[in-house]
Amino acid sequence: MQNIQSYIKEHKDRFINELIELLKIPSVSADSAYKNDVLTTAQAVKVRLEQAGCDTVEICPTQGHPIVYGEKIIDKNLPTILVYGHYDVQPPDPINLWDSPPFEPVIKKTDIHPEGAIFARGACDDKGQMYMHVKAMEFMTATNQLPCNVKFMIEGEEEIGSANLATFVKANHDKLKNDVILISDTGMIANNVPSITTGLRGLSYVEVEVTGPNRDLHSGLYGGAVANPINVMAKMIASLHDENNHITVPGFYDKVEELSAIERAEMAKAPFSLDAYKKALNIDAVYGEADYTTNERNSIRPTLDVNGIWGGYTGEGAKTVIASKAYAKISMRLVPHQDWEEITELFKTHFESIAPKGVTVKVSPHHGGQGYVTPIDSIGYQAASNAYQDTFGTKPIPQRSGGSIPIVSLFEQELKSKTILMGFGLDSDAIHSPNEHFGVFNYLKGIETIPLFYKYFTELSK
Ligand code: BES
Ligand code: MN
Ligand code: MN
Q1: Shared domain check, 145 and 76
Q2: For the segment 16-30, what is each residue's pLDDT rounded down to a tens digit?
Q3: Which listed ligand is nearest to 399 at the C-alpha?
Q4: Given 353, 369, 385, which residue is the final one in a domain?
Q5: Strand, coil or helix: what is 48?
Q6: What is the pLDDT of residues 124-142, one digit of tens each?
Q7: Are 125 and 425 in contact (CB under 8 A)?
């Protein structure tokens, strides 16, 4: 029977080319101008799942972009793995900062990826990582080595909050019944330091609008005499952190889990170079909450960040004006136990309360989700750990991530199953950024490791 290494060697070029074809379709979920491309991508994913050996594959319509669902049930008495991924991508802008067009994939070598990396929007997040599962499935069915049942649920709205997937999951408990959920939509520490993600942060995303006078005003005639919404909003936002970079929203930290000194010491053992970190970002210092390390700040601590801010005149040259309105988009990354809806309420109440007289404030929640942690003594974690041990030759390190996949906690709540996050991306892969890429090594390593997860999970379930 053929093993996975020789199968990859034989089919490597095709695996890469198939991914490149998928990356050419601009499946930007946030922008309705791409609606047809999103649908075309769903149809392409359906065909690929059929070719990979699924028995039934369907496109499930939703109120938004469709979900692609496929399965192969070989024996009801065997365990079932539910694979989740997303075929939608982030908008590509700012386009002018890309070295090559975002939907014309190219392979280039980099310092971190000497074997080459595929540059395109979605290469890592998440088409490339999702497609590793399709190719792993192809290997297992083509060589008669699928050890258990498998279900695929690939959605098209992850980057916009998965609202319709939540409805779908709630309505389809039986269809989606599984023993473990497997996702590759996160990262690992380095190509020679494999890690498995054991935690995700929650998220509350809000938009604020500060209104002053009922129209834009001449900044000479009125300046100094009325509240300037942009000045005021800047001051309000600045007050959301104190001198230690703690968030000042009352009640914000009430439910935050404080890790024990032992756990923090464990975390600190993961290899990390502050110098390399600063160098990669071209910054002379890191910045953040007092008394926490960089890796703690970006994983086990909650944050509040402005993601976008606008108002007034931003065109060429100068225009003397006091705008009527100022806006900002603010995200709060949350840690397990913080409830995103509660935090959204706390933020709203606080932000409204600090508005000075002379302006009105509107806070509109966008979307959110709970954080997630998974234990490392589960069968699923052990199976993943064994799989990485075999393919990387070293035991993977458990690591909590700072990113969010809100649907994961909903899976646990609705389907009562744990998720294993086998991500093969690197933080330097520039997801959501210009020049997003995914290492060819990482892509093929993922395809190699996934079938071993199936094997170990099935064995350990006996
Ligand atoms: N795949 C990412 C999340 C991620 C990336 C987690 C790397 C851990 C490591 C996902 O597609 C994403 O971007 N999620 C959003 C939240 C979503 C509600 C828009 C995020 O984290 O900003
Ligand atoms: Mn993703
Ligand atoms: Mn993303």
Answers
A1: yes
A2: 999 999 999 999 999
A3: 1
A4: 369
A5: helix
A6: 999 999 999 999 999 999 9
A7: yes
